[in-house]
Amino acid sequence: LRDALSKARRALSGGGPLAVLSGAGMSAESGVPTFRDAQTGLWERYDPTELATPEAWRHDRDRVWAWYRWREHLVSTAPPNAGHTAVARAERHRQVVVVTQNVDDLHERAGSTVVHHVHGSLFAHRCDTCGEPMHPGPPSAAPTDHLEPPRCPRGDGWARPDVVWFGEMLPSAAWEASVSAVTGASAVVVVGTSGLVHPAASLPTLAAETGIPVIEVNPGPSGLGREVDVHLRAPAGRVLPDLLAD
Ligand code: APR
């Protein structure tokens, strides 16, 4: 790992803008389960990739709403880890743009000032019919697997999480800002993503095709391949402080 780390630090030594692309693995050391981890407790029998779908919302709205409120509660009690802090601290000596697939707010709570959420945010809600923002208040800590969402005051819609479900369009402003962050970077660091879900998974390839060095931080294998110049096989919280230190 030491050789890979010095090679990765050389790739970052350009000093120009840095783009950090993060997935669920970035928040794993904060105690937030990744999407492909086995779920625990109340949710162990549900596959998140089945709950995060428009079909699940149509057929089982109260369960989906309960699940997202539970994650909102879980995330709001989870501390940013050393990886989030290292990314935030890097802003002291270079421009850093975070592009995250995560719907948590741990990058912001660690101090990062430019964060694009390409899959939306747990803390934003909107009417599933008219699209108006809705404010359901803080989630309850009591675990429950059924919860009726608030009705929209403007008609017959319901509050839904303002996150991107499978098959849904990504928020265009966040996506466009992410593409320009990647193509304008002097280096890209991809952290904690299986690289399976598009179009987010295509950003590292876009960087590689633009001749920008790509460093991957992931203890395990991922769907990323030749577009990666250096793969640091270690957890984000352990290696990002060394990788991003001034
Ligand atoms: N540090 C870095 N990476 C880690 C760590 C860690 N401590 N722990 C696990 N990982 C890696 C895993 O090896 C895995 O490759 O994080 C990755 C998590 O992959 P996923 O659970 O698939 O999460 P992600 O890639 O963000 O999923 C993409 O799919 O479910 C949808 O919309 C959802 O944004 C999500 C998207």
UniProtKB/TrEMBL annotation:
Binding site for substrate: 68, 71
Alphabetized InterPro entries for the sequence: DHS-like_NAD/FAD-binding_dom, NAD-dep_sirtuin_deacylases, Sirtuin, Sirtuin_cat_small_dom_sf, Sirtuin_class_III, Ssirtuin_cat_dom
Any Pfam family matching the protein: SIR2
Main localization category: cytoplasm
Catalytic activity: N(6)-acetyl-L-lysyl-[protein] + NAD(+) + H2O = 2''-O-acetyl-ADP-D-ribose + nicotinamide + L-lysyl-[protein]; N(6)-succinyl-L-lysyl-[protein] + NAD(+) + H2O = 2''-O-succinyl-ADP-D-ribose + nicotinamide + L-lysyl-[protein]
Cofactor(s) listed: Zn(2+)
Co-factor binding comment: Binds 1 zinc ion per subunit.
Source organism, top-level taxon: Bacteria
Function field: NAD-dependent lysine deacetylase and desuccinylase that specifically removes acetyl and succinyl groups on target proteins. Modulates the activities of several proteins which are inactive in their acylated form.
Family designation: Belongs to the sirtuin family. Class III subfamily.
HAMAP family registered for this protein in UniProt: Sirtuin_ClassIII (MF_01121)
Name this protein carries in UniProt: NAD-dependent protein deacylase
Species lineage: Bacteria, Bacillati, Actinomycetota, Actinomycetes, Mycobacteriales
